[in-house]
Amino acid sequence: MSGLLGSATTTCCLAPADAVGTENKWDKTSPIVYSPLSQSETGQPRNPPTYPSHPFQMEQVDPQIIASDWLSSLQSALDAKDSIAFANAFLSDGWLRDFLVFTWDIRSLTGRTKIAGYLGGALEASAISDVTPGLEHAHIPPRVVPVAQMGPDVHAVELAFTFECAHGHGRALARLLRDAGGTYRALAVFMELADLVGHEELRTMPLRDDMTGLPGRDMQKEIAEYVEEMETKPYVLVVGAGQAGLIMAARFKQMNIPTLVIERLPRAAHSTLPTYPTNWPEFTPRDMLADWMENYVSTQDLVVWTNTEFEGRPVYDRASATWDVTLLRQAPKSPSTPRTSSSPPAPSGPRASPPCATSSASRPRPALGRLPRRRALRGRARGRRRRRQLLDRRLPGPRARRRGGRDDGPALADVRRRPGRVRGGPARGVPPDVPADVMDFRVAAWPFGLLKRMAIAGRPAAEAAQRELHEKLRKGGVQLYMGPEGQGLYLLVVEKLGGYCQGGVSPERFTGKGIVLSDGTELPADVVVFATGYMNIRDVNTALFGADVIEQTDEVYGLDDEGEIQGSYRPSGYPGLWFATGTFSTCRSQSKPLALQLRAIQLGLLKHDGTRAGSVDNI
């Protein structure tokens, strides 16, 4: 097996080492300047970034001409292998986001000096050529687009282009703004490796395509042989059939990377992407989403073993660059090697020696609160997989409604240790006429670091839009929290995968009738439900792989100094071990660079020692 991926919102894989001021508007005649967020001695934001105000006249802009002129200047810099000229195509504090084009890594650079320094030796080695405007889709022509994060009058010229590079086929998306001299330069450019030459991602499911016209073709036999190969010779072992695990497995399948998914529960996806129907509910029930993802396993022909766990710890052999893994499936181990579908009829316990292997860290373990005198409570204390704390108790006043509309059940008190972040209003969805992969491409073209700066600067406007809701919540005693730097909900999810529902008090100890809070209040309770988050992914994997392995890995999740997700979708620090984390959108867009790295290793195009600095390009 060549890799292990977990499910839910975080996962890990094993792979071979070898083989705003008060005015939230933008002045198009002024240079773009993001002033650093200065902190007071208490750590609170003191001076948020400011933008000068001036309306943008869309009717005066021809996006075709602007895009063509900018792309010509970029092409000249690429032809000359001139990193300084390339950096000058950006605003003074513009952003370059690179997925595997200039190096086998995921990077974000801001400012001309850092961009030029990053490209110093990599620009020539990348061998970028055949820069061509547009993409294969007709959904991203040069156009003027609003940049709502900067204000209602802020617009940019957006363009996409394709190119060839040393690693394969590439594509890019740029957003341009006008500098003080009237020249359009890049606010942000996203460049990514799209495919390896000769090993492009499949766009269809050939095993299910019965229009080949081949005489004597036995489709069912081909599918059975495919399943057998996934089960007996996987290159990647994905541990955990939740969100991240299934998304990774589907991507690997399209990249011709043999993949087996294992899940310790009886059903896939029920630990907790695919494109949903147009009538999908805005607030999706948990079980409905799990059922949909379980159906995804079937429609995508993913090979999933349920009721399966590790027996002992996987062992990595550095000499052969493979993992030795023993699995327990449904019952005590059996000497046979199973060759069955994703719903095994019989127990089995196979051994495998994959070049890559992965673990079940995608399903984090609940962090159940530990308070004194727990046994004194006559009721029960339970852990819940949510990032808030609920105390189920009887209260005077309105009753809490149970499922089905009945109102005779016990009320729920929501007690939070810190303020919470609440967002109201309609959710922003994907336009029905735009393919999901195009929307993911556009979203990925915004570096997280840039989004964070814009969110901090746009905080006054964001709070104004939610003022009515926030005032009602405050009157009800809810403390609101926009993050330590005012970055808001989305960036808190990216940085902490939650941790934003927080409220002033915390539980101190149990009593015979309930629980005592830190402010001295005693609440009667029959059931106390702790929804305090999850254990860290590295802690979970320590139990699977041992401290000697996990201590060699980088921190996982949260943003690094460049604004990229730490330890995810790139070498983890330990050879053959990979992590995948984040939201649905992040998993979809970054599953491709992870798959490209594994495929390049499999083909012998890339070698590395497991560290980000240890890659060796064999192309």
What is the structure about, briefly put?
This protein is an alpha+beta fold.
Describe this structure in words.
This protein is an alpha+beta fold. The protein has three domains: 2-18 and 220-364 and 536-617, FAD/NAD(P)-binding domain; 50-195, Roll (Nuclear Transport Factor 2, Chain: A), CATH 3.10.450.50; 374-530, no CATH class. 24% of the residues lie in helices and 22% in strands. The strands form nine sheets. Strands 5, 6, 7, 8, 9, 10 and 11 form a seven-stranded mixed sheet that branches. A hairpin with an 8-residue loop joins strand 8 and strand 9. Helix 6 (243-254) packs across helix 15. Residues 1-10, 15-57, 332-349, 358-364 and 381-413 have low confidence and may be disordered.
Top keywords for this entry?
619 residues, alpha+beta, Nuclear Transport Factor 2, Chain: A, 3 domains, 7-stranded mixed beta sheet, 4-stranded antiparallel beta sheet
Summarize the main sheet.
7 strands, mixed
The helicity comes to: 10-25%
**CATH superfamily name of the largest domain?**
FAD/NAD(P)-binding domain
CATH top level label of the largest domain? Alpha Beta
N- to C-terminal separation? Answer: 24 Å
Tell me the CATH topology of the largest domain.
Answer: FAD/NAD(P)-binding domain
Task: Please give the CATH architecture of the largest domain.
Answer: 3-Layer(bba) Sandwich
Amount of beta strand: 15-25%
Number of helices: 15
| Overall outline | globular
Determine Rg (CA atoms, Å).
26 Å
Secondary-structure content class:
alpha+beta
Residue runs with pLDDT of under 50 for 5 or more positions: 1-10, 15-57, 332-349, 358-364, 381-413
Question: What's the number of extended β-strand segments?
Answer: 29
Mean pLDDT rating? 74
State the domain count. Answer: 3
